[in-house]
From TrEMBL:
One of its GO terms (cellular component) is extracellular region. It catalyses: 2 superoxide + 2 H(+) = H2O2 + O2. Belongs to the Cu-Zn superoxide dismutase family. The lineage of its organism: Eukaryota, Fungi, Dikarya, Ascomycota, Pezizomycotina. Keywords: Antioxidant, Secreted. This is superoxide dismutase. GO terms for molecular function: metal ion binding; superoxide dismutase activity. It is found in: Cell envelope; Secreted. Its EC number is 1.15.1.1.
Length: 280
């Protein structure tokens, strides 16, 4: 869905006290978003919403940032982090509430992280999708403002102008989960996969446990977000004592919702029960 159409829909819904995110033009370099200016003739800038590029540029085979390819993460300590979406959306322009969790567990052999995605409540894909989700650099503040999470986790400074190629995940932004593992195109979304370029090691440039997950419409408008919190010292295909809770604030959002964390231990239990053998 194009930006002007989305903003028109948002306005027609009569959002209670909310304003649609403004569109701005980015014509200079910005770390993590546009680290290089495109070399195409006549480039005058790209449209952005909340700091994210609205329309992708051309695919450039093997494109990387100044930091080169992402590094496969090994020796990850056993740990499980979960982000649980709030009951109120940051941007309620779609008049739906997306619910669910993102759980990341260190792989049993220490290489990479197993992710389990469980979302529901997406609005019509034909109007607002396909939906994308990413790990963002900053946590969600107490007021629930998804814009404050800034850009994607991108330790190689690749940027987002040139689309990620899922056949070359090492060239993508580390936090671009949708780019590497697929967009969301239905009202419910369940997926699991091994992500080699994220870490459970605090202090690593690829560590995601102190960051956030953000869900966007196709034009990058941020719909909802949540922080990761450690819920267990467990890796995939292993067992350990779970805390079952994650502490967070629940203050009302500056925009239209809250991004607090409401962890369901029952969901986490289902994930552990479903774990099978994981290789690599």
């Amino acid at each position: 869905m194009r930006t002007k159409e989305f903003l028109a829909v948002a306005g027609s819904l009569g959002l209670a006290g909310a304003q649609a995110p403004p569109v701005s033009t980015l014509s200079t370099t910005m770390s993590g978003v546009l680290p290089y200016l495109p070399v195409s003739t006549g480039f005058t800038g790209v449209e952005t919403i909340e700091g994210a590029i609205v329309y992708d540029g051309p695919i450039v085979d093997g494109f990387t940032g100044p930091g080169g390819n992402a590094t496969i993460q090994t020796n990850n300590p056993a740990a499980t982090y979960m982000a649980t979406l709030p009951m109120t959306q940051f941007d309620d322009a779609t008049s739906t509430t997306i619910m669910g969790t993102v759980t990341g567990m260190a792989n049993s052999n220490g290489t990479g992280v197993m992710f389990y995605i469980d979302f529901s409540g997406f609005p019509a894909e034909s109007e607002y999708g396909p939906f994308v989700y990413h790990i963002h650099n900053m946590p969600v503040p107490a007021d629930g403002n998804c814009t404050a999470t800034l850009g994607h986790l991108d330790p190689t400074d690749r940027g987002e102008y040139h689309p990620c190629e899922d056949t070359q995940p090492e060239t993508c932004q580390a936090g671009d989960l949708a780019g590497k593992h697929g967009n969301i195109t239905s009202s419910t979304f369940n997926s699991s996969y091994l992500e080699l370029y994220l870490s459970t090691t605090p202090g690593s440039p690829y560590f995601f446990g102190d960051k956030s997950v953000v869900i966007h419409t196709s034009n990058t408008t941020r719909l909802t977000c949540a922080n990761f919190a450690m819920v267990s010292s467990t890796s995939a295909n292993s067992t350990s004592t779970m805390s079952g809770t994650a502490t967070s604030t629940s203050a009302p959002a500056t925009y239209t919702g809250a991004a607090d964390k409401i962890v369901g231990s029952g969901v986490l239990g289902l994930i552990f029960a479903a774990l099978g053998a994981v290789i690599l």
